[in-house]
Specification:
about 40% helix, Retrovirus-related Pol polyprotein from transposon TNT 1-94
Length: about 90
């Protein structure tokens, strides 16, 4: 059963989400490290996490099948499964 929404319910103000205003202090062991968040854009305009993932893994099975490295890895895995009879 679909409930009807009254005008009072629609016009109610949405409460603001409270955000912490506590100062964030970097641990001493990380003071000399250069750190970037995953979503931060670097000087070249690229997302940092995409640069790390660019060549690491294929996106789908078809991409994996086009790579000799991944075909060998899949074959090794299947051979291992068969030899263990699992």
């Amino acid at each position: 059963m679909i409930e009807e929404i009254s005008e009072e319910q629609v016009n109610q103000p949405v409460p603001e989400v409270r955000r912490s205003n506590r100062p964030r202090v970097l641990p001493a062991r990380l003071q000399e490290c250069e750190m970037n968040s995953d979503g931060q854009v670097n000087n070249d305009g690229e997302l940092i996490h995409l640069a790390f993932m660019a060549e690491s893994e294929p996106i789908d099975v078809n991409s994996a099948l086009q790579s000799e490295k991944w075909r060998c890895a899949m074959k090794e895995e299947l051979d291992s499964i068969e030899s263990n009879q699992t």
